[in-house]
Design brief:
It holds the Pfam family Glyco_tranf_2_4. The protein is of the alpha/beta class and about 350 residues long. Helices cover about 35% and strands about 15% of the residues. Strand 2, helix 2 and strand 3 form a beta-alpha-beta unit. Helix 8 packs across helix 9, helix 8 packs across helix 10 and helix 9 packs antiparallel against helix 10.
Length: about 350
């Protein structure tokens, strides 16, 4: 069973599509930490099959870390640690609420046990002011050096690098078999010294990333990032854009004026030249709504996840940070009902 973990701050309508797409494209169960504890979102998630919702107010108590990245890492690795003792959790994957995992399960299930982690290569949604019905039909893949040089020479990007071409990350995401002494990082599996560990790559492992794919999504996501605690670590031009958005959010402006300025930032720094990319023939046409995966059923995994997440509510969870205290993490999990437990590496 593949269990995906996410820390979200989003609307019910958007999360309905996100949950459905992930469950249809390879994920079996989602553990969703609702970062703003939105009651409507929590109620809907609780009524949805193959989902374990977590109320962030109960989860953190008075120990909520200020940084979003810290909360994400702790949440992901708490579930990874739970997966080490719950039979049936074969893989754990961290996703954001603008990401869809597309996995060929037959190929994944055929991998030998010696493969401990796999990488989902990023496919980024082409950014436009609007997409008809909100349905993106074109995605960017990572380009080769000759392709980047051509796109740069045609004026499509300012530097001939994939970091310039993509607006979001280029690292993709990793799924790992849950073990004690390796951790899920933001884009890598790491050891106790936070050294990156090898991953298996294949064309049938993809991550659809809806990074600011419309003007409205750009406003929603970047406003959330600017108001979710200390600045999230970003790279180069993305860091400059994050600082600009934070400055704009802090200005005392009428909402309509702020929106127009945000859209100006989107047009200048994010919107892609769809026509040019189409003429170059470098786009992928993918439909996440055509997935046919049926999530695996389990009589024990959902209840085990719910029970063990409940055991961790309100306690200090810093031991789940990459490189954290493994023995303390084990002790925190020890009170779980014995029928759920097994121990893996």
């Amino acid at each position: 069973m593949i269990v995906a973990v996410s820390t979200v701050k989003d609307t019910r309508q958007r999360l309905e599509r996100w949950v459905g797409r992930n469950l249809a494209n390879g994920v079996d169960h989602l553990v969703v930490f609702v970062d703003d504890a939105d009651p409507e979102v929590l109620d809907w998630l609780a009524s949805t099959s193959h989902v374990t919702p977590v109320d962030s107010l109960l989860w953190w108590g008075d120990r909520r870390p200020a940084g979003l990245n810290v909360r994400q890492r702790i949440n992901a690795n708490a579930v990874r640690a739970i997966g080490t003792v719950v039979p049936g959790v074969d893989w754990v994957l961290h996703l954001d609420s603008d990401e869809v995992a597309v996995i060929d399960r037959a190929q994944l299930d055929a991998l030998p046990d010696s493969v401990g982690a796999v990488r989902l290569a990023p496919c980024e949604a082409v950014s436009q002011r609007d997409w008809p019905n909100g349905d993106v039909t074109a995605f960017k893949r990572l380009l080769s050096e000759p392709e980047l040089s051509l796109l740069f020479s045609l004026g499509g990007i300012d530097k001939a690098t994939n970091n310039e071409y993509f607006h979001g990350h280029v690292g993709g995401k990793v799924a790992m078999r849950p073990v004690d002494r390796l951790w899920i990082g933001t884009h890598h599996v790491v050891d106790a010294q936070r050294e990156k560990q090898p991953t298996f790559d294949a064309p049938w492992l993809r991550l659809l990333h809806y990074e600011s794919h419309t003007g409205d999504e750009f406003i929603r996501k970047w406003t959330n990032l600017a108001t979710s605690g200390p600045p999230v670590r970003t790279r180069g031009a993305r860091s400059d854009l994050a600082a600009a958005v934070r400055g704009l959010v802090e200005l005392d402006l009428p909402p309509d004026d702020r929106r127009e300025l945000m859209l100006t930032l989107f047009d200048r720094h994010v919107r892609d030249d769809l026509d040019l990319l189409s003429r170059m023939g470098v786009l992928l046409h993918l439909d996440p709504d055509s997935g046919t995966h049926r999530p695996l059923e389990s009589s024990t995994v959902p209840s085990a996840l719910e029970s063990m997440v409940g055991e961790l509510a309100g306690v200090d969870k810093s031991c789940f940070e990459p490189g954290g205290d493994v023995e303390r993490a084990r002790k925190l999990l020890a009170p779980a009902p014995r029928r759920f437990l097994q121990r893996r590496g």
